[in-house]
Design goal:
By secondary structure, this protein is of the alpha/beta class. It has one domain: Rossmann fold. The chain contains seven helices and ten strands. Strands 3-2-1-4-5-6 form a six-stranded parallel β-sheet, with helices on both faces. It is globular and about 50 Å long. The structure holds NADP nicotinamide-adenine-dinucleotide phosphate.
Length: about 230
């Protein structure tokens, strides 16, 4: 039986990256017990959290590593990255989908380039950048955007309590508050295409308790960007 006094436990997969570390800070601030997963060589990047979080080192697409990390977690936040040519993103997503406990909140990060229903409308500039980036990345065999697409396809098809948070371009800086979101890229509120990384992380953590985001793929933008402000006044 569940112990009502137990602190809620959250797993952050990809905890050592910039987004991951912001998520760890937000989760600790909210009183979660935090389990972080990162590559062995990146454990040092989590030194600021020594003795405050449990770190499970290992590749995030390793099913045993993920099974151990998500054990008894109420929520799992996963940074989906297209790095490498060995199905890192889809392997990571699949491991989380398979091993998280039934009913756990699963929140994944990716970019605007992911489309759930094909109804996103991209600017010519965005499309040109994505096409060039995708081709160069494939040529140098460092990044596999198609595998991030495959990861999200599997998430969208699952009957778990998932949310895929689609990030705009990112910048560093002080928080501007919780980003605003819309269902489709191309919606006017998103036109500014910029979010503070700290706020992206906040959106990921707060999504855990927002049931309206279950099985949604919100595209986000900074709350104080011109397009978000124009929409707020409309
Ligand atoms: N950057 C943007 O402008 C942007 C825009 C929209 C959406 N997003 C989304 O935001 C999320 C965070 O992205 P970010 O760019 O801000 O980076 P980030 O937070 O610094 O995270 C990068 C992650 O990739 C891992 N990584 C780096 N090289 C790797 C490799 N060769 N093999 C496996 N893992 C590797 C890092 O792990 P280590 O710590 O072990 O290196 C880290 O967990 C992603 O889901 C991304 O799709 C980013």
């Amino acid at each position: 039986m569940e112990n009502p006094a137990r602190r809620r436990r959250i797993c952050i997969v990809g905890a050592s990256g910039k987004l991951g570390r912001h998520m760890v800070r937000h989760a600790l601030d909210r009183g979660y017990e935090v389990v972080g997963v990162c590559r062995e060589k990146s454990v040092g990047k989590l030194a600021e959290f020594d003795n405050r979080i449990t770190v499970i080192p290992g590749p995030t697409n390793n099913r045993e590593v993920i099974a151990r990390a998500v054990h008894e977690c109420d929520a799992v936040l996963t940074v989906l990255v297209p790095w490498g040519m060995n199905h890192y993103a889809s392997g990571t997503a699949q491991a989380v989908l398979d091993h998280a406990r039934p009913g756990a909140r699963l929140v994944f990060s990716c970019g605007w380039h992911i489309s759930r229903d094909g109804k996103d409308v991209y600017s010519r500039r965005f499309k040109a950048y994505a096409a060039v980036f995708g081709k160069v990345a494939k040529l140098v065999r460092v990044v596999d955007v198609d595998d991030q697409v495959e990861a999200c396809r599997r998430i969208f098809a699952s009957d778990t309590r998932w949310t895929v948070v689609r990030g705009s371009d990112l910048e560093e800086g002080e928080s501007q508050g919780l980003p605003v979101w819309s269902r489709h890229v191309g919606d006017p509120v998103l036109a500014s295409n910029l979010t503070r990384r700290v706020d992206y992380a906040r959106f990921m953590v707060e999504a855990v308790d927002d049931d309206t985001l279950v099985q949604e793929a919100p595209a986000i933008v900074g709350r104080l960007t011109p397009s978000a402000l124009a929409h707020a006044q409309a």
